[in-house]
Design brief:
mainly alpha
């Protein structure tokens, strides 16, 4: 195993971990906004980690073609890194405008 193989495996494994955490957050959190927050943050990080891991793994037979493919994958990772939080923000703002109420904890000091 080469250093690039190990690095690629670590990146993809971390990405899968964050996908799992995001899925658990979607299932366990109480309302739309917190679920969307978990999905937006974890899925963005996970997708970027997996794509970068694949780009690193692709560099193993180092050639010009492999470098071009890895460069394109890095551009895709940058695109996901910018657009996913933007889309999450737009969905959240649309829900707020439509009147989706945030969850409020009911306890001793709350009505």
């Amino acid at each position: 195993m080469t250093v690039l193989s190990i690095l690629a495996m670590v990146l993809v494994t971390l990405g899968l971990f964050f996908f799992t955490v995001g899925t658990i957050g979607i299932l366990r959190l109480p309302d739309f906004y917190t679920r969307l927050h978990a999905a937006g943050k974890c899925d963005t990080l996970a997708a970027v980690l997996v794509i970068v891991g694949v780009a690193v793994y692709n560099l193993q037979p180092f050639s010009f073609g492999a470098l071009l493919v890895s460069g394109k994958l890095m551009l895709i990772a940058g695109f996901v890194f910018v657009t996913s939080p933007t889309a999450t923000h737009a969905i959240t703002e649309a829900a707020l405008v439509l009147g989706v109420k945030p969850w409020q904890r009911k306890g001793k000091n709350r009505p």
